[in-house]
Task: structure prediction
Amino acid sequence: MKAMMKLPNIGEPTWDGAAKRNSASDVAIRALMPVHAEAYRQLMLRALQDFPASFGVSHEEVQAQALGDVADRLRGLDQCGEIVLGAFDGGGELLGVVGLRRMSLVKMRHKAVVGRMYVVRASQRMGLGKRLLEAVVKAARDVPGIEQLSLVVHEDNVGARVLYTSLGFTPFGVEPRELKIDGRYHNSVHMWLALD
Result:
């Protein structure tokens, strides 16, 4: 039986408690819902243009996804085993995202994977990435039975690795040639965080 997770209502202020001020606007962290499918897809397409080596999925694959399939990913942890949190500015614009996917196999249900983390360039270095990561760790802690998180980060993405380490994630290996993009290989660092 899957653990139920109460998701914030779209109209509720934030996932992490209260909107915090950054240099541009108030930003609220909350769960994306199927109604956010197009904004989420557009943000991921932008992420894949900016940082293609940071994601296993390609720009073409995301572009080819039916909007209904994207919406299905946003039904919540209790419905599809996955949750995507978004950072929204005061005007409702989606500035960043992070996903959490619980492993479905019985022997692995104590684990969840953090992925598809991205903050638009104009909002980077304002602490949104840290807030998104803190919120997704809190969301995982709120689900009974999730004991650890893992993530994969591009070896050259030093800023992201520093962020993940600052929140307690520990590297446990480098996967050589994990991705191949335009004939060039990219290594990835695997990291984990114990929640118990």
